Amino acid sequence: MYRNTILFAGLSLLIFVLLGFATYKEEHPEWKKYQQEYNVLLAEKAGDPKLANLPLTIKQNWNNVLNRIDRCTSCHMGISNAKFFADAKQPFKSHPFLNEGEFMRKHPFEKFGCTICHQGDPQGNSVEKTHGFVEHVDRQLLTGIFVYSSCTKCHINVYSADVNFKEAPVLMQAKALVMAKGCGACHTIKQMGFSGILAPELSAFGTRTELSFHLVHDFSHVENPVKSIKNWEWEHFKDPQKVTPGNPQATPPQPPTIMPNFHLTDDEATALTVFVMSFKDKKVENIPLDYLPPPYPATPPPAQAVKEAPPKKASKKS
Amino acid sequence: MAIEIKHEIFPKDPKKSYGLVELVKGTSPITEKEPETTVFSWPNLLFIELIAILLSTAILIVLTMISGAPLEEMASPDTTPNPMKAPWYFLGLQELLVFFDPWLAGVVLPSFIIVGMILLPYIDVNPKGVGQYNYSDRKFAIWTFSFGLALWYIMIVVGVYFRGLDWQWYWPWDNWELHKPPSGVSLIDYSVILTSWGISKSAAQLIAYATVLGYFVVGMTIPFIFFRNFFKSLGFARYNITMMLFLLMMGVPIKIILRLVFNIKYLLVTPFFKI
């Protein structure tokens, strides 16, 4: 009986402590730590000590038109503050291209939010839930050069040959590569006007969710431990035979891929990966009309080239 | 209108505040027990139960803190996950669907499980071992219940840990990313096997009926003949209900074994359900 009383008391205390610990954990999430740090930094840089005690709240950008709720700025507080945080450490570093004349000026955060370009999980608010490859997220976070694959959600005419989309050099590099290598001989890419039928269609490659890609692709030959679309595609560009060697045991037997190995450099493979991930399906992306920009101005052809062109006979072919 | 009491059968003692009112014939669940050999349930039993409640609460709180319950992808009509797994507590039923007609595995068997659980206190009227831990007097009850529970949880464990792509069997050390080749075994109905031995179709159907019926009939009569005491202690109605539930429960592993060992798809095909 005495032992039971001791047990009862001990367990009650244990539950009390556990509940206290759970409450503490809920009251001290990751983002609060970062926000506090940011406020101290801001007070330091702005010279106003009052700023260090700003209330800590979840910062949320609810974009009604795009139907997105972005909570990234709960930690990335300095994202639009290029004056103070241009070279601060992450997560306070301000967004690049914010200066006068650069393209982020035309994409204010209030209007666009973050995940419309960067994808990822908009509502997670811890490092582990939102950064790197997160299991069960349909569209993984895009960072660095890969964000350029989101430009084409709205800027649809960057694929035409006479457009030089200066803001995204990587797309232009890849476009030149695609023109040079002749991908259209086998692949159908509506954006580029290709209609090859020997290989899978790539017209909506960038819209595929992680899961739908996973169900129909063999990841067992991908060396990268992170099994994402990006890595599969990159390794496939580097060495198609390695990633898709076929499977004679399967029913029906799968032949090895017929895609030739182009011996691309790492940079070229990255550029091409960004490029194929930029092929979006308009119906799925569903960008509202008032977000669509005017067509990107085409670069006029050099005047000399027009003069040197031999006068053609009038023909109905054009 | 007050009833005039002529005489008291048990006259009340004027020195006492209570008296005997009536004697009735009947049984009580606790027989042959004296106050000297019993203890009060509070604090002896309930206190221990309270401690058990506290302990399980503490364990649950710790579990919720160390393991989250994340959601998967947003449901999408054009992408079905593979394997499409139910929550873990339904995976036993989902595993049953491999071996049974969906009407049986999804509706009939779960209903029988629930109904059987409800009937337990009315079926088990064995007065032995009340109020104490007792195994030797309740062997049948303990073994039957444990068997059913084990069956349920074995099914869940199989569904959670051993079923991968296309609901194929995957060992933990297999590569879960690779599709397994579809098994070369084709499952055949029992009646089809019989017809392949040269029995006519209608006769084969009859034999199939006879097999299923015979299983129940034999199952009902064996304890009746060899364990008379068991039958007598339960009484006719309780005996029938108990044995029916017991045979249904034993039928599940038997059917699974038939399916795995002899590749029999259905024992009996009727227009309404298939066993």
Layout of strands and helices, then pairs:
The complex is a heterodimer of chains A (318) and B (275).
Chain A: H1 2-27, H2 30-46, E1 61-63, E2 68-70, H3 82-85, H4 109-112, H5 115-118, H6 127-130, H7 169-181, E3 188-189, E4 194-195, H8 210-216, H9 229-238, H10 240-243, H11 266-277, H12 282-285, H13 303-308
Antiparallel strand pairs in A: 1-2, 3-4
Helix pairs in contact in A: 7-11, 9-11
Chain B: H1 41-44, H2 46-66, H3 91-99, H4 102-123, H5 139-161, H6 190-196, H7 201-226, H8 228-234, H9 236-262
Helix pairs in contact in B: 3-4, 3-5, 4-9, 6-7, 7-9, 8-9
> What characterizes the major β-sheet of chain A?
2 strands, antiparallel
What is the overall shape of chain B? flat
End-to-end CA span of chain B = 67 Å
> Residue-averaged pLDDT of chain A, rounded?
86
- Distance linking N and C termini of chain A: 100 Å
Low-confidence stretches of chain A: 305-309
Q: Which pair has the most extensive contact? A: A-B, 29 and 30 residues
Biggest sheet details of chain B: none
Describe the protein's architecture and organization.
The complex is a heterodimer of chains A (about 325) and B (about 280). Chain A is mainly α. In chain A, about 35% of the residues lie in helices and about 5% in strands. Mean pLDDT of chain A is about 85; it is low at about 305-310. The longest helix of chain B has 27 residues, at about 235-260. In chain B, α3 (about 90-100) crosses α4, α3 (about 90-100) crosses α5 (about 140-160) and α8 (about 230-235) packs across α9 (about 235-260). With about 280 residues, chain B is an all-alpha fold. Chain B contains nine helices and no strands. Chain B is flat. Chains A and B meet through α1 and α8 of A and α2 of B.
Summary keywords:
heterodimer, A: 318 residues, two-stranded antiparallel ribbon, B: mainly alpha, 9 helices
